[in-house]
TrEMBL record:
GO terms for biological process: alanyl-tRNA aminoacylation. It catalyses: tRNA(Ala) + L-alanine + ATP = L-alanyl-tRNA(Ala) + AMP + diphosphate. One of its GO terms (cellular component) is cytosol. Its cofactor is Zn(2+). It is found in: Cytoplasm. This is Alanine--tRNA ligase. Pfam families: DHHA1, tRNA-synt_2c, tRNA_SAD. Residues 4-713 form the Alanyl-transfer RNA synthetases family profile domain. GO terms for molecular function: alanine-tRNA ligase activity; aminoacyl-tRNA deacylase activity; ATP binding; catalytic activity, acting on a protein; transferase activity; tRNA binding; zinc ion binding. Consists of three domains; the N-terminal catalytic domain, the editing domain and the C-terminal C-Ala domain. The editing domain removes incorrectly charged amino acids, while the C-Ala domain, along with tRNA(Ala), serves as a bridge to cooperatively bring together the editing and aminoacylation centers thus stimulating deacylation of misacylated tRNAs. NCBIfam families: alaS.
Amino acid sequence: MKKLSSSEIRQMYLDFFEERGHTIMPSASLIPVDDPSLLWINSGVATMKKYFEGRVVPKNRRMTSSQKSIRTNDIENVGKTARHQTLFEMLGNFSVGDYFKKEAIHWAFELLTSEKYFGWDKDKLYMTIYPEDEDAKKFWIEAGVEPDHLIDMEDNFWDVGQGPSGPDSEIFYDRGEEFNDLAPDDPENYPGGENERYLEVWNIVFSQFNHKPDDTYEPLPRKNIDTGMGLERVVSIFQNAPTNFETDLFLPIIHKTQELSANRKYGKVAADDVSFKIIADHARAITFAINDGAIPSNVGRGYVIRRLIRRAIVAGRDLGITENFLYQLVPVVGKIMQSHYPEVLKNADYIEKVVQSEENRFNDTLSDGLALLNELMDGVKKSANKQMSGADAFKLYDTYGFPFELTQEYLADAGMSVDAEGFKNEMQKQKDRARNARDDGNAMSVQRDLLVDIKTPSQYVGYTQLTVDNAKLEDIVFDEQLVDSVKAGKAELIFDKTPFYAEMGGQVADQGVIEDQDGQLVAKVIDVQHAPNNQNLHTVELVEPMQKGATYKLVVDRNFHNKVEKNHTATHLLDQSLRNVLGGHTQQAGSLVEPNYLRFDFNHFGSVTEDDLKKVENMVNDQIFAELPVTTIETDPKTGKEMGAVAVFSSKYGKKVRVVSAGDFSIEFCGGDHVKNTSQIGLFKIVSESGVGAGVRRIEAVTSREAFEYLNDKEGLLNRIAAELKAKQLKDVPNKVAQLQSEIKDLKQKQESLEAKVASQQANDVFSNVKDVDGVKVITGIIKDSGMAQLRQLADTWRTKGLSDILVLGTNSKDKANLIAAVSDDKVKAGFKAGDLIKAISGTINGGGGGRPNMAQAGGTNPAGLNDAMSAAYDWVKTQK
């Protein structure tokens, strides 16, 4: 067999299909764009949904790609099996209503067996087919497959509910008897069974039916091809690797981890090998995810990143690595993938910073996890069966990264056990949640064939003119039908040319009117969107009847349009200013350009300081005041990139692109409308900055008149404040405010001093009232007109003087109540915990709380329940004996 690197295999696949008329599509971001159903891009076809659904007609109906993907539904199996990965690359070729089964099958067999390409022995290949798919069987035999290498499989039918579906063929490679892990008579010992010998390398889906709501199937008007070949699996075959991990995609990471470990070597100890594999896999996943804009957090995809990082760190500790190490693997991943993903190495410094910060954070979390483990073990000691619940063990696993085996070891050393079955149940619940989310994301809708069939050309002329006098009405869509005329209501219209901008790239659609040749109003344009074949589709409310083939005057609302232009150019200036101030890692994550304001989302690790925000705002205004010319040229994408143009997201660009420049300051690919000179923007003002998701920040801003009105309103507010403060000039306001704050601080201190004295006087009576509850000395009391600060001071006094074993104090202020509980050190050792006590009594005040074993507090909304809380405290003490 040929000896090929992963880079060579990837490129050979793409070249093969490019030679057969396919367009090579760049690998899209792992973070889905305009697809809220997906947490991650989890397959090659996930990036093609818009084409298969008919929302967009591709420039070329034949496409191929090597798409990076993430799946985390089986994360606990990573490292323990030969081929489970969180990040993987899916090679694929796609046909959207172009070629079908014959071509897909013949090309697949040619790629796999031709000496010019993979050159695999055809006798080692087996294909599974859907039993009723006679065409697939015929074409495989035509291609050169022996009939006894074709296997009928009832499961070979791709169907995820309503929408496109169809039979599929899976291709298996026989790795030989040395990989056989089953007995000869084992029912799974065949191509397609659960075994190590026959490795699935490719799946070809023949999407030819529409699964209808009544569970019947009808033929699709356009049949599609969707294939997926796992790069990691194919590389393992070429490099004769026992698992995916002994390939050039993983070994450099494993070798670097060896250097960082306590003299551990891969391939020596099975348990160590699992740790090496977990680290190598997770290092790849987090590097690519962070590069694409994901940031560790406690929700969504940020939680996935945090969990992977922590799991890798725990694996590192199993290898004797106690210092931060994971960030050092980032450049190793970048070098491995440099040929197809050069941006990873380019952004390595930023990715390392994020990973190292999370490693630092986890040291604290790991300590918290150990503290919780010890606390839970204390509870297990008191239980009858000396067994930790599965739910508690799962919490340690899921929240703190504690492997179940580690929890078992801790408990076993202390003569206790853990409910393994309960843990498995909790794990299954999590898997079910992940599977449900995944199934929803894979669903597709059927193409809106009416719009797909409309191929009438339509020219957008709004870059240079906002009125078209003689626009021919080419198509009318009314009630999902093509009609020749329409009298009333809403309709969708396509003209041969139009000045109306169709919503795209964050810029909202133009508004305006349609008139007849006599100047009479016939319709109001309320929205404009792109039809699948890229025409501008106008949604209108009719005033008068309209006729196909007639000519009309199209008039864009000039004021609306001009305000949008100003805000759009301002977003370009803002984008570049953010890169200049915060760093080149910032990427646009979304935008909205309205006439009255703009919104700009961007990826950034951490909050933006007030100082940096002011720098950004000043930089944008400097470009406005510099009166930079805004120019647009049309060129090809390659030339645009060579000019330094910034691309948005993972956008796919056609043969021609528009490059918009604001002087030498900003240059971007953009199909939107812009001012001719930055001075037309007038003024730029940021009105808010906030976080909207894990690692995503949002800036909202205004320009021109709206910026002036915003500042004018602020000045009016300041004038009113100055008048209230009796400040003669605005510049005197800060001093007046400082003076008031100082006076308030003094008054608060005096108030707290008086409250402390009153509380201390009341405490003398409370502290003298010690009750004996089954041998435990308890003090309880209600301190009137006090606060939590005073209760804490009294608790400190109580502890210093050693007045009793347990203290419970309460106080009220208007409609709020506070409780504090304290336990002496001796009683803490005996098993009495203030946190448990406060939880037991806080319900009486309609509240809740918690704290440490020796001190805890709670707040609530029912002051009337304070007396009941004191009684409940005595009852709780009795239950602890």
